[in-house]
Amino acid sequence: MSHEHIHKQEGGCSCCSTHEHGHEHGGEEENSLLRLIGIAASALMFLLGFLSRGSVLSVSFFLVAYLCVGWSVLKEAVENIVHGELFDETFLMALATIGAIGIGEYGEAAAVMILYQLGEFLQDKAVDSSRDAIRALMDIRPDTANLYEDGKIREVNASEVNIGDRIEVHVGERIPLDGVVENGSSSLNTSALTGESLPQEVSIGDLVKSGCVNLGGTLLLRVTTPFGEDSASKILALVEHAEENKAEPEKFITRFARIYTPVVVVLAVFLAVLPPLLGIGTFSVFLNRALNFLVISCPCALVISIPLTFFSGIGCASHNGILIKGSNYLEALTRAEIAAFDKTGTLTKGEFSVSEIVAEEGYSRESVLELAAYGESQSNHPLAASICKACSGEIDRGRLSDVHEIPGRGVKALLDGKELIVGKPDYLVESGVPCRISAAHAATAVCVAYQGQLCGTILLSDLPKEDAKQALSALHNLGVERTVMLTGDRAAVAEAVGRELGIREVFSSLLPEDKLSKVEELMRDKSTKGVLLYTGDGINDTPVLAEADIGIAMGGLGTDAAMEAADIVIMSDEPSKIAKAIQISRKTMRIAKQNIVFSIAVKGIILLLSGFGFVQLWAAVFADVGVCMLAILNSLRAMR
Ligand code: ADP
Ligand code: MG
What's the predicted TM-score (pTM) here? Predict the structure, then answer.
């Protein structure tokens, strides 16, 4: 996977990224060493040629130097012509240097090629390192599987699972390995694999693929393929996905190059032919100028530095634990206007401590907690983890069946074949179990009902994340004036947290669908260029994450479903990273704009000068590589 990839996106003029490298990492390193040796050898030959100027030997030194570095370019130019891609950079380089040789300028031809290849090499290196940073980040989350053995679940590394083993996949989790459904039914989000956004329904006997996210119920799978390739290709798919989403300035370059290159070639032909025909000068002088013009015309600086600027920006974000899935999101971040947040797990830690258990008649506090733990044993909700931790007893999974999680509400399951409901008070009422809780309690309430009877209520409290308050003031300082909290929790809890953090608007008791309509309402409120950010962690947040201009998910605590739907993932779970991401995006855009203006201006001036014969070929290439390098150095500033 290498620059070929960027190359394809640039359309006609795939400046400065036309080399095919080995696909293996080791191969790539070897390859780049070979390239460097080739360039150094050519430079030596060139030096010998230069020192023996005037002798016959000099020409052969120059020619060897030229072929040594230029061979791959010539070969690729021919291949591209065969494929009908006439106006790319290799074509320009080949035409101009062969022309130079044709008019006896051997030294220039060699110098041009050496500088060009050196430029290419440095550019490729720079692109590689930012890509590696991104790739490394994608690899951070290890794949684990819930291995099902003798009625017990054990979390193991996905690589330890063998064909024929049984694994359980809970709601909100990503399927770690390909397998056949043995028990349960669910719907899957397959978008990571297929790009298809509609969920796929699966039931017993269906084959499911790793990388899909389980949206519905718990699935028991019999593994059919070993751990390996599929996981790697999944990561690659994500990286490619990031590159497909190009930012505005990048699209501008692609369009620009497509028109620009043919125009330049036509102009060069005119420059070579017209003035001599009009009697202004000799044909050889203008042929020389036309060749200069061609070499200079390659918009290297633009075509390579702009995508690289965005790579650097994304790389910088990744060093900060912020995974941005495309440069278009980086660009959109600069226009952030409204920041909306989920509460639990996003602004708060999601580590609840049980503050009180109210048991109804006939139940002890311990039994209420135990029933709740049974209900929550397969849930990924932060409340579930906290309840299971608080309960000391063993969970016998054999007693449970038909577990369903209803996002934003709670869990319904059969325990010993009888209905168990664990969830928020409203959800129990919806399910026909009378239940109420004093509005004054500023704690999250989880009610437990068994066989249609309320057994008790568990009150839990959560603390805001350490940096949450600072995160909000940083956003306000960056000009993101509207900060909004959208939560499924009760008003008393929501308002207490909102007040503590200094969030400007609070909406509570929202079901997942209410969150969605609230966000749609906010989207209508913002200015046309403004961007709405939504940050969430849970499976109930996924529709909103997809709907918002930019969805941001918490990578550590968050569910795979949320990370899949999000455009940006914060690996460290710190909300303050949102402000950091905005700062990075603004810096990146500033640099991209500087590069555009700088390289177009310099290019225009040099082209004009070369047309009038004021610039020699080698000087032009030097200037070109120089501009390119300056632009690249500037792009790399986005890394810091
Ligand atoms: P938030 O929007 O604050 O992240 P959620 O939408 O995830 O909260 O959940 C909203 C409310 O629904 C929770 O406060 C809780 O009362 C209830 N709830 C959701 N999932 C569960 C669960 N697995 N167990 C118990 N209660 C739940
Ligand atoms: Mg949440």
Answer: 0.70
**Of the candidates 587, 554, 586, the residue with the CA atom closest to the CA atom of residue 568:** 554
- CB distance 519 to 547 below 8 Å: yes
Rounded to an integer, what distance in angstroms lies between the CA atom of residue 243 and that of residue 397?
44
Q: Which of 383, 391, 430 to mutate to test the pocket of ligand 1 (most atoms within 8 A of CB)?
A: 383
The answer to whether residue 426 is catalytic is no
**Mean pLDDT confidence for 18-31:** 49
Tokens coding 159:
């690589």
CA of 234 to the centre of ligand 2 (A): 26
Q: Which of 343, 487, 552 should be mutated for ligand 1, with most atoms under 8 A from CB? A: 487
Contact 525, 481 (CB under 8 A): no
Largest CA distance in the chain: 110
Q: Mean pLDDT in the chain?
A: 81
Nearest ligand 1 atom to the CA of 537 is 4
d(CA 606, CA 617): 11
Ligand nearest to the CA of 381: 1
Q: Which of 178, 342, 537, 549 is catalytic?
A: 342
User: What is d(CA 98, CA 105) in angstroms, rounded to the nearest whole number?
Assistant: 9
pLDDT of residue 158: 82
pLDDT, mean of residues 505-514: 89
What's the length of the chain?
640
Query: Would you state the pLDDT for residue 100?
Result: 79
Neighbours of 536 (CB within 10 A): 31
Does the pLDDT at position 25 exceed 60?
no
Q: Per-residue confidence at 126, pLDDT binned at 50, 70, 90?
A: low
Q: What is the DSSP letter of 590?
A: H
Residue nearest to ligand 1 atom 15, measured at CA:
424
The one-letter amino acid code at 409 reads R
Q: Choose which residue among 354, 462, 489 to substitute to test ligand 1 binding: the one with the highest number of ligand atoms within 8 A of its C-beta.
A: 489
Query: How far is it, in rounded angstroms, from Cα 540 to Cα 381?
Result: 10
Rounded Cα distance between 97 and 270, Å, is 18
- H/E run at residue 155: strand 152-157
- Which-ligand-closest: CA of 345? 2
Ligand 1 site residues, Cβ closer than 6 angstroms: 342-345, 376, 379, 381, 383-384, 405, 408-411, 422-424, 444, 446, 487-489, 538, 540
The identity of residue 177, as a single letter, is: L
CA distance 48 to 62: 8
